[in-house]
Design brief:
Pfam families: N_methyl (PF07963). InterPro entries: N_methyl_site. This is Prepilin-type N-terminal cleavage/methylation domain-containing protein. By secondary structure, this protein is of the alpha+beta class. It has a domain of about 130 residues. The protein is built from two helices and ten strands, in the order H-H-E-E-E-E-E-E-E-E-E-E. The strands form two sheets. Strands 1, 2, 3, 4, 5 and 6 form a six-stranded antiparallel β-sheet that branches. It is rod-shaped, with a radius of gyration of 35 Å.
Length: about 210
């Protein structure tokens, strides 16, 4: 009996002293698995972050275009004549229109919009058609803007035949740094004060230029 107890005590002492831990191979395998898990996690996190940034960029671009088109809608709807859009010497696209239905017999107000294909900035300026007023400085409205469809961003529909009012169609695209399309919008604005007698050329000639 005593010999059996002696053997049990010896076995327990061997188990208590057996503290060898992990081998080098087991440690390397564990670290490799942990590294793979971390790589998968961070890859998913980066992908999710990029998707979030792109989605937010699309929302911001769409909001900017809507704000721009709201300004155009407010201005064009009171126009009495719209110039035929065209390009200037720099290759920028231009559109001009004139508002004559103003209070207190004020001089006609001229509006000019420009899309620069080099800077991708859509800007506008105004002046009074009194023969002496100079145009204001260009005011940037939208950035990273291009002509939708690769053609002119501005298209005039004259008042001819059954078409009672002039209208200006504007097609703009906003692209991100990598060239991805963030927003695209095309809207037609009707000049409610125009008619078949409205001019479509030589409108707002005093002070107008297309550099």
């Amino acid at each position: 009996m005593s010999s059996l107890l002696t053997r049990l005590r010896a076995a327990l002492r061997r188990e208590e002293s057996d503290d060898s831990g992990l081998t080098i191979i087991e440690l390397v395998v564990a670290m490799s698995i942990f590294t793979i898990v971390l790589a998968i996690y961070f890859s998913a996190l980066i992908s999710m972050s990029k998707t979030t940034v792109q989605a937010q960029g699309s929302v911001d671009a769409s909001d900017a275009l809507r704000a721009t088109f709201n300004v155009l809608d407010h201005e064009v709807r009171y126009a009495s004549s719209i110039n035929t859009p065209g390009q200037g010497a720099s290759g920028a696209w231009y559109a001009e229109f004139e508002a004559t239905d103003l209070p207190q017999k004020a001089f006609p107000m001229c509006y000019q919009w420009r899309l620069d294909p080099n800077t991708h900035v859509l800007s506008t300026r105004t002046w009074t058609e009194d023969g002496t007023s100079a145009p204001t400085a260009w005011h940037g409205v939208s950035w990273n803007v291009q002509a939708g469809g690769g053609a002119s961003p501005f298209t005039l529909t004259p008042a001819v035949g059954t078409v009672l009012r002039q209208s200006l169609t504007v097609h703009l695209t906003v692209k991100g740094p990598a060239g991805a399309q963030l927003a695209d919008q095309e809207t037609t604005f009707i000049a409610r004060n125009s008619s078949s007698a409205s001019k479509s050329d030589l409108v707002c000639t005093a002070g107008m230029s297309r550099p």
